[in-house]
Design a protein that fits this description.
Distance between the termini: 55 Å
Structural class: alpha+beta
Number of helices: 8
Number of strands: 19
Oligomer: single chain
Low-confidence stretches: 1-5
Largest sheet: 5 strands, antiparallel
Strand content: 15-25%
Length: about 450
């Protein structure tokens, strides 16, 4: 330390540095214990924050089965996937629907009847215009002149962003090129009809494919149905159908048991992740090989807030839901039970059986019915309470932050005390060395004055 004289025991013969180090180490023991305490509190806070993230992940999994229809997954199958495919949402009702496709929806196409030798060939000898219209929209006009090329016309058409796509296609071969203009509507349906209003080019552009709606018959309707597109979701409730070809096909909607199991398993897994983490951070071990049989405990071992949270979760999961109209009121009825370590076990065969008997009750067990909330609703409410502002976890985290801050203040004061203590010891021993050195010098002087020592008489 600046201003401190350090003498290494030259006068006294003492190992001054060692003595000071040992005295400082002895004085620092309470400070070391305080640092250990701070490390313990910091470990508690870190573990609590990790737990909070796992609880939030559990909340996310719970919310995915909280609304009616979220638990029960549907699957739609087509008897002829060459004709159509189908996908179902959770709101789709089980059943079969026959569809006979008589026409597919298509867009309009216009092509040039006169070919060109290259894409850079000009399309007119003088000034003029090329005008077209899509459906009942406005006329789209492009000015052309003797410098306008085939590719240039296509580029200008695309630049209008008018609902068509223009391209130049070689309808011939490399040896005998025959470049044509192709204009196609970007959407399907009769409303996308393409009209060539004015063509001052030498290309002879005409509509070669008319825009049309899809046409099909559906079980229960005597008249054919028509749609602008080949994909629609307003014919079979909760089912999206994509038409691929003409012909008959049957759409069958049923319960996707595998997906239902997956939905429930996700909730179980997220809960078990919370419990397994708490268990791993709450273990207490005794070292029987050590002479003092020392005991070490995980950072959450004696945390009352964490025990309260886990207890509350188990209470929600194990308590029955009364007031539901269905036949189920307990998670154990669909195969979810509690293991000895607090985690959940899931017997999928029981869930499959419950789905076969009364799938609506399975859905209500999680998402509730009417004014009665299901298990997912109760878990959502509880998890929101323990993770939100002013919640158990937030209050506990604030308490740990305050403890760390208080210990940091004590450590800062303690470190200053140690620094001052060490400086004092160094000064004291330096003074001691100087004093002993002075006394030795005075003693030698007195002995010399008295004629004692160092001399020889003849």
């Amino acid at each position: 330390m600046a201003g401190t004289i350090t003498v290494g025991g030259l006068a006294t013969g003492l190992d001054t540095s060692s003595i000071i180090s040992q005295l400082v180490a002895l004085e620092s023991q309470p400070l070391n214990q305080l640092q250990t305490q701070r490390d313990g509190v910091a470990a508690q806070q870190s573990a609590l924050q990790t737990l909070n993230s796992k609880v939030l992940a559990f909340l996310t999994a719970v919310d995915k089965v909280r609304d009616n229809g979220d638990v029960i997954a549907r699957q739609a199958t087509s008897s002829n996937t060459a004709v159509l495919t189908a996908t179902a949402s959770g709101t789709a009702a089980p059943g079969t629907t026959s569809i006979n496709v008589t026409a597919l929806a298509q867009g309009a196409i216009a092509t040039s009847s006169v070919g060109a030798l290259s894409a850079t060939s000009t399309v007119t000898a003088g000034a003029g215009s090329f005008t077209f219209r899509v459906g009942s929209g406005q006329n789209q006009t492009i000015a052309i002149d003797a410098t306008t090329t085939l590719q240039g016309l296509a580029t200008k058409i695309n630049g209008l962003a008018a609902g068509v796509s223009a391209s130049v296609v070689n309808a011939g071969t490399a040896a005998s090129p025959d470049y044509r203009l192709r204009i196609a509507s970007t959407d399907t349906g009769a409303s996308q009809a393409l009209t060539i209003v004015q063509d001052d080019t030498t290309l002879g552009v005409t509509v070669t494919q008319q825009a049309a709606n899809s046409q099909f018959t559906v079980t229960g309707f005597t008249d054919p149905l028509s749609r602008e597109h080949n994909t629609f979701d307003d014919v079979i409730p909760g089912v999206s159908v994509t038409l691929l070809d003409r012909g008959p096909a049957t759409v069958t909607v049923g319960t996707d048991t595998a997906s239902v199991n997956s939905n429930v398993q996700s909730v179980v897994n997220a809960f078990n992740d919370v419990i397994n983490y708490v268990n791993s951070q709450s273990q207490v071990r005794q070292d029987t090989t050590a002479t003092d049989h020392s005991v070490t405990a995980g950072p959450l071992a004696f945390d009352g807030t964490v025990r309260s949270i886990v207890s509350g979760l188990h209470a929600v999961l194990s308590s029955g839901v009364s007031g539901l109209q269905g036949s189920l009121s307990q998670l154990s009825q669909i195969g979810i039970t509690t293991n000895e370590d607090g985690t959940l076990a899931f017997d999928t065969s029981k869930l499959d059986s419950a789905l076969a008997q009364d799938e609506k009750s399975v859905d209500q067990l999680f998402s509730g019915g009417g004014t009665v909330g299901g298990v997912a609703d109760r878990l959502h409410d509880y998890l929101t309470q323990i993770t939100g502002v002013g919640s158990l976890i937030a209050i506990r985290n604030k308490s740990l932050t305050d403890q760390i801050s208080s210990i940091d203040d004590q450590l800062a004061a303690g470190q200053q005390h140690i620094a001052d203590y060490q400086a004092g010891l160094q000064q004291t021993f330096a003074n001691l060395e100087l004093t002993v050195n002075t006394l030795k010098s005075q003693g030698a002087f007195l002995l010399s004055s008295l004629g004692v020592g160092g001399g020889t008489t003849g």
